[in-house]
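Ticket #4471: structure output looks truncated?

Reporter: J.K.
Steps to reproduce: submitted the chain below (291 residues) through the standard prediction queue, then opened the result file.
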Amino acid sequence: MIQGSIVALVTPMTEDGAVDNVSLKKLVEFHVEQGTDALVAVGTTGESATLDEDEHCQAIKTVVDYVAGRMPVIAGTGANCTREAIRLTQRAKQAGADACLLVTPYYNKPTQEGLYRHYKAVAEAVDIPQILYNVPGRTGCDLLPETVGRLSRIRNIVGVKEATGKLERVRQIRALTGDDFALYTGDDASSLEFCLLGGNGSITVTGNVAPRLLREMLAAALRGDRASAEALDAKLAGLHDSLFIQSNPIPVKWAVAEMGLMGKGIRLPLTWLSEDCVPPVRAAMQQAGVL
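Returned output as attached by the reporter:
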């Protein structure tokens, strides 16, 4: 089971919006050096919604190749079309990904039965470990604990990224799944409590900017050391908030560029961070000791 700090990696781009593989390699090396536990390639933070299928799959393969077995790589392969999700998951497996992360189908708002059948179809079509991803604030549908419990009985569905910020779901989902089913939070601000309650780690945005500190905080929480985890998380609190001051990944891409790890590239309809939002992000980076 993958545990700890799983960074939802930004996809670096040039100012004209092309994927920047030179900076992508720099980011991979940065996370290896900083001790990040695993990377998610081309998830929400990686701008999956604006990459076409070939770009999406090539970016996954590039991350896998650059990592070269030094940490697990989880590929973002969710889609609101089941056939497309199957195709992306197949290509991620071919690229060498260790697991896939599949967001709930967005916009079309399926029922719980529809969500169950969607994930079951992908799992049966592609024999690779698969992690469910529930983020109703973005998708318009909520994958309920009871449905997660049903899906956990499918052999290669191995975990869930629960991004509602509802801490009671740790207990609810754990009771319906068992200890060998991984529970990851997608809400940085509550990741400390999530792990203290029995979660297995965080698929994190903050980890793009302060990876070592975030990993140390989560490691303390996972071993039940509340005092150490709280002391570390106090340094990260500003990032947890300011990195969502505008739509993700706008603030985090600005922050990573400010660290000199990539250029100022993002794809429409997303835009570069507004000038009035720069001071709080910069102050949070200083608080975390990364500037």
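Triage note (M.O.): checked the attachment and the full token line is present. Strands lie at 4-8, 38-41, 73-76, 99-103, 130-134, 157-162, 182-185, 201-204.
Status: closed, working as intended.
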